[in-house]
Amino acid sequence: MNKLIIEGMTCAHCQASVKNALEGVPGVTSAAVDLSAGSARVEGDADVQALIRAVEEEGYSARPAT
Predict the structure, then answer these.
(1) Is the distance from CB of 55 to CB of 65 less than 8 angstroms?
(2) Distance (Å, rounded) from C-alpha 36 to C-alpha 61?
(3) Cα–Cα distance, 30 to 5 (Å, whole number)
(4) Parallel, antiparallel, or unpaired: how do β-strands 39-44 and 61-64 relate?
(5) Which of 14, 26, 52, 56 has the highest Cβ tally under 10 A?
(6) pLDDT score of 45
(7) Phi, psi of 5 (to 5 degrees)
(8) pLDDT score for 66
């Protein structure tokens, strides 16, 4: 599992866009995006950099949670 910090989400549409982007990355089995926490949990064996790129392509910023 990977956990990401997502910045720039302001509404449910943003949340859905990030979720769809993450689920489109090869190797992702599921993604859960928490709008209020500004985070995402991603299940599967996708590369974390590919996850970050997918989020950034939607116009948001992402980084691994520590």
Answers:
(1) no
(2) 15
(3) 16
(4) unpaired
(5) 52
(6) 95
(7) -95, 125
(8) 80
Buried b (16+ CB within 10 A) or exposed e, 15-40: bebbbebbbebeebeebebebeebbb
Q: For residue 14, with 0-12 CB atoms within 10 Å meaning exposed, 13-18 middle and 19 or more buried, which class applies?
A: middle
DSSP string, 5-60: EEES--SHHHHHHHHHHHHTSTTEEEEEEETTTTEEEEEES--HHHHHHHHHHTT-
Give the integer Cα–Cα distance in Å for 26 and 31. 12
State the first-to-last Cα distance of the chain, in angstroms, to the nearest integer.
Answer: 13
Ranges of residues in the chain whose predicted pLDDT is under 50: none
The helix/strand/coil state of 26 is coil
